[in-house]
Structures are given as structure tokens and as C-alpha cells.
Fold:
Amino acid sequence: MTATIKSHRRYCLLKRRYNLLCGEEGLAAVWRAKQEAVPSTALPPTFPALSTLAASGYTTKADIDGADQDELVGVGLTISEAVAALAALALL
Structure:
């Protein structure tokens, strides 16, 4: 995995996802609140696989900036959707 953490918002998202995987919903809720408290540019409505990304907490540019294909596939995107999302991110 070559994903990187480029912002505090992304750090909070990754902590949130980790806590959900561990079954720690309370901690995940704390990290979600911290993530959502950090402003960032919303992903445009035409962003590839936006509904799947949003369901996993990726709603802004800062959330996805630093993600790699494996990470995006891990949250439910197909390989082609992950490639399209990363290409769209590069254009933002």
C-alpha cells in the first residue's frame, strides 16, 4: 500500500475507518466528528463512484488525496472506478 496522509482530515478518516474495522463504533464516531470539523473542498457531484466513496467517508478532496488504488478498492470501488477516481482527483 502506497497511500499517504496529506492532511489532518485524511488522518481522521483513516483513524475512523480503522476503528470501524475493529468494531469500535464510539471511537469511529469521535474521529468522524474530527474529520468533518476540518473544512475541505467537496468532491463534485460528477466525481466517479461518488456514492460509494461518500458511504465510506470520502466526501472531500482532502479525504481522497493520498489514497491509492488498493485503498479505494478496499472501500468498495472496482479497479476501473478506482483508476477513474484517481484520474479525476488529479484534475481537481
Q: What stands out?
A: The two ends are 23 Å apart (CA to CA).
